[in-house]
Amino acid sequence: ANLARILNAGRLGGTGRMVILPVDQGFEHGPARSFAPNPAAYDPHYHFELAIEAGLNAYAAPLGSLEAGAATFAGCIPTILKVNSSNSLATTKDQAVTGSVSDALRLGCSAIGFTIYPGSEYAFDLMEELRDMAEDAKAAGLAVVVWSYPRGPNLDKVAETALDIAAYAAHMAALLGAHIIKVKPPTEAISLDAAKKTYASHPVEVGDAAKRIAHIVQACFNGRRLVVFSGGESRGADSLLDDVRAIHAGGGNGSIVGRNAFQRSKPDALKLLSDIIDVYLSEV
Ligand code: FBP
User: Fold this and answer.
1) 182 assigned to active site
2) CA gyration radius for the chain?
3) Which residues are 162's β-sheet partners?
4) Are 109 and 66 in contact (CB under 8 A)?
5) What end-to-end distance do the CA atoms of the chain give, in Å?
6) By the 8 A CB rule, do 165 and 198 touch?
7) Where is the active site (predicted)?
């Protein structure tokens, strides 16, 4: 029922597609780097309002942000409590548990959100933490959203988004029991150097952007799990919309767009989010 709340909300309600606003960048990257481009975004109420006015499916954020808006926006939009967090001052590719299933229930959330870093020295700990939290979340009827970001000593920036690595990370999130899997849009395939004694995949057809998305969907149980793709750093609307068209054409379930939304002025963000939703409402 909680997954259905997300799927049935907003302008995309009932289509199987979704657009989510994630605002954990203040934690992950720092406040000024995240919010200085649009200072209104220092206020967590701003993000609730933006997601609601844009007709999005859900708003995802860490504990403090959801608590700050709970009294005002209760029941106005499905929320996802991000229950682990990293920060840019840290020296390890790890995440601290910063929220709980009982916090999510107290705040009326529809889901918990959890980041894993396949490839990190801490990947197994993160997966075991996710296993425990997902069991509790599911027992309480909450959906589980997994941010699966390949990251670690053997993965450079190119490998982090490489198609075969991204598909592997997405598949592990599905195997860990995620209802919604979140990855970055995949770039070209790359099998890691055998000399490094790390992952070397079966060759994957690189294809165009839509074919790459289709391969990620295939890795998420052939479409039996929902998969959404992040927006990344703020950039021109045309480039972001090209990604969204490829996600739509490749059978992805939607977008989770943070910086490209809240770092723009509100009218510009509303226009861009509306254009993104229109893509998902169009015929493939
Ligand atoms: P964006 O649309 O801003 O990229 O948000 C998606 C997201 O996953 C956030 O939830 C998270 O804070 C951020 O990307 C992490 O980005 P990175 O670790 O690549 O800097």
Assistant:
1) yes
2) 18
3) 187
4) yes
5) 28
6) no
7) 149 (proton donor), 182 (schiff-base intermediate with dihydroxyacetone-p)
CA distances from 33 to 48, 62, 214, 263, 270 (A): 20, 17, 33, 10, 21
Both structure tokens of 89: 């001052």
pTM, rounded to two decimals: 0.95
- Ligand 1 centre from 121 Cα, in Å? 20
Phi, psi of 115 (to 5 degrees): -100, 130
For 120-152, how does the pLDDT look when each residue is reduced to its tens digit (9 = 90+)?
A: 999 999 999 999 999 999 999 999 999 999 999
Q: Which of 23, 24, 25 to mutate to test the pocket of ligand 1 (most atoms within 8 A of CB)?
A: 25
**Residue 196 above 90 pLDDT?**
no
Complex ipTM > 0.95: no
Residues paired with residue 155 on neighbouring β-strands, in sequence order = 152
List the domain boundaries for the chain.
2-281
**Which residue has tokens 């926006």?**
73
Residue 202: predicted pLDDT: 65
**Looking at domain 2-281, which CATH architecture does it have?**
Alpha-Beta Barrel (3.20)
Going from the Cα of 131 to the center of ligand 1, the distance in angstroms, rounded, reads 22
DSSP lists the bridge partners of residue 81 as 61, 112
Strand-strand pairing, 96-97 and 84-85: antiparallel
Burial of 213 (0-12, 13-18, 19+ CB in 10 A): buried
Amino acid symbol at 211: K
Task: Note whether 54 and 12 are within 8 A (CB).
Answer: no
**Which protein residues touch ligand 1 with a CB less than 6 Å away?**
22, 24-25, 28, 147, 230-232, 256-260
